[in-house]
């Protein structure tokens, strides 16, 4: 009975991750509808996407640190309330400004739940079952990240943009009610709350200006002086933040956590793999809808091949992680990931759609089989489990933001090189320019993938050395 209860709790926490990551990507597909219905220009509408992501990244570490002191479940449940309320505000919004307020509330709730769901899993599952539990959590969460454009295309094919927010509301209510009665009781972890407010302010400014520089760069070009000035401000506040953290007794992040080499390598490799995963969200709608002239609904169906394969691959990889180790399983799946990425660097644009969809299945297998959560949480000592969980979510969201930037920049750079002039739009009359841009974008993805393989192989070597030392 306890095992069944644990599985239900795993699905309850994981489905909140699914909805929250889905909301980070599904809105991209709805931007054309939103700009038309709300009568706003495209560059303003993009803030509907970015303000949500910025809020999550600003607050993840805060809630991770608070969870270590007052408990994971209280914060997770409160986050569920805020996310559901934010979704309701978004669904009822008659204007851009109210929609942005709703996205801020959503981002607040999402940051609370994302910072704590992995900690809850670590709390309820014994060590020998955590690989599979993390695998299921990872797959459901990544499904939200990957399936956004596909699911968005299907929803918008028959319903209005309001429904991409309405679908969150019943799930949020069910998860909260389930948690209210079924989550285990959790004692307060610290009698007094100690918090590093200076660290929070400097970190929040650093992360906000970092993302603002990225989104401004996508809008007005990365050569613009204002973009570089904001990026410099971000770097200054990062330097202040790290200085403050080194001299605080109770820092926002205990920087000693990054001295655990395998944990740090796991976080960076997760960031890279999530960046690569976001290429499909950016490029595939252009390729299928514009280049191949497919309908929005068919595009959505084809793109659903990625999350479908992800669903199958992640729990299988989690099973093998419990038998072997996360780094070995991840290396194997990253090599599988390389197959479709190499294919996409060479694509002619005339491939049979069945073959193309088959390659998207390989993307889902490679992405789903990458065991980021087991690596991150497995290498974090018990006293760092809360902050490690929030760092895992932070690096995942950083990867999404950086992935959007690199994919968009490399796509348009490749098109500009082919055209011999600056291109920042889909070249309707010159499809070969787009294909060249797509090739170049996936070459950058291949370079990132090779870097991720090197990092995970380094983790594998340390694992092997440690195992030999114990004999």
Residues in helix, %: over 70%
Query: Rough shape?
Result: globular
Average pLDDT, rounded to a whole number, is: 81
Q: C-alpha Rg, in Å?
A: 21 Å
Order of helices and strands: HHHHHHHHHHHHHHHHH
CA(first)-CA(last) distance: 38 Å
Q: How is the biggest beta sheet arranged?
A: none
Structural class: mainly alpha
CATH architectural arrangement of the largest domain: Up-down Bundle
Task: Give the amount of beta strand, in percent.
Answer: under 5%
Give the total of beta strands. 0
Total of domains: 2
Low-confidence segments, given as residue ranges, are none
CATH topology of the largest domain: Growth Hormone, Chain: A
Count of helix runs: 17
Kindly provide the name of the CATH class of the largest domain. Answer: Mainly Alpha
According to CATH, the homologous superfamily of the largest domain is MFS general substrate transporter like domains
GO cellular component, one term: plasma membrane
Transmembrane segments: 48-67, 79-101, 107-127, 134-155, 161-181, 193-215, 227-244, 265-288, 300-320, 327-347, 353-370, 391-413, 433-457
Protein name: Major facilitator superfamily (MFS) profile domain-containing protein
Domain Major facilitator superfamily (MFS) profile: 9-464
């Amino acid at each position: 009975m306890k095992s069944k209860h644990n599985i239900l709790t795993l699905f309850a926490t994981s489905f909140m991750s699914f909805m929250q990551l889905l909301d980070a990507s599904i809105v991209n597909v709805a931007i054309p509808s939103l700009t038309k219905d709300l009568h706003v220009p495209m560059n303003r509408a993009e803030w509907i996407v970015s303000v949500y992501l910025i809020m999550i990244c600003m607050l993840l570490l805060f809630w991770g640190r608070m969870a270590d002191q007052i408990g994971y479940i209280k914060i997770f449940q409160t986050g569920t309330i805020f996310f559901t309320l934010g979704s309701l505000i978004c669904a009822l919004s008659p204007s851009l400004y109210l929609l942005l307020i709703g996205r801020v509330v959503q981002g607040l709730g999402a940051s609370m739940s994302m910072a704590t769901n992995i900690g809850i899993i670590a709390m309820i599952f014994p060590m020998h079952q955590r690989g599979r539990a993390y695998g299921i959590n990872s797959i459901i969460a990544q499904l939200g990240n990957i399936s956004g454009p596909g699911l968005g295309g299907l929803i918008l094919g028959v319903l209005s943009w309001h429904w991409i927010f309405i679908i969150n509301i019943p799930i949020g209510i069910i998860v909260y009610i389930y948690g209210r009665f079924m989550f285990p009781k959790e004692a307060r972890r610290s009698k007094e709350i100690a918090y590093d407010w200076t660290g929070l302010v400097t970190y929040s400014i650093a992360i906000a200006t970092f993302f603002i520089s990225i989104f401004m760069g996508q809008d007005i070009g990365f050569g613009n002086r204002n973009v570089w000035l904001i990026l410099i401000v971000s770097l200054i506040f990062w330097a202040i933040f790290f200085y403050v953290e080194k001299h605080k007794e109770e820092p926002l992040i205990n920087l000693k956590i990054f001295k655990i080499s395998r944990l740090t390598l796991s976080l960076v490799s997760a960031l890279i793999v999530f960046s690569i995963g976001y290429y499909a969200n950016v490029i595939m709608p252009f390729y299928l809808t514009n280049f191949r002239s497919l309908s929005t609904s068919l595009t959505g169906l084809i793109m659903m091949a990625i999350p479908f394969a992800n669903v199958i691959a992640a729990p299988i990889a989690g099973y093998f992680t419990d038998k072997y180790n996360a780094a070995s399983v991840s290396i194997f799946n990253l090599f599988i990931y390389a197959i479709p990425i190499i294919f996409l660097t060479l694509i002619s644009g005339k491939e049979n759609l069945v073959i193309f969809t088959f390659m998207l299945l390989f993307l889902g297998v490679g992405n789903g089989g990458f065991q980021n959560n087991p690596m991150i949480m497995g290498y974090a000592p018990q006293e760092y489990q809360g902050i490690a969980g929030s760092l895992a979510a932070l690096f995942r969201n950083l990867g999404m933001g950086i992935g959007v930037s690199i994919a968009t920049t490399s796509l348009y750079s490749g098109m500009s090189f082919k055209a011999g002039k600056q291109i920042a739009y889909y070249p309707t009359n010159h499809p070969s320019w787009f294909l060249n841009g797509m090739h170049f974008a996936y070459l950058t993805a291949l370079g990132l993938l090779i870097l991720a393989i090197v990092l995970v192989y380094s983790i594998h070597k340390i694992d092997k050395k440690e195992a030999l030392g114990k004999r």
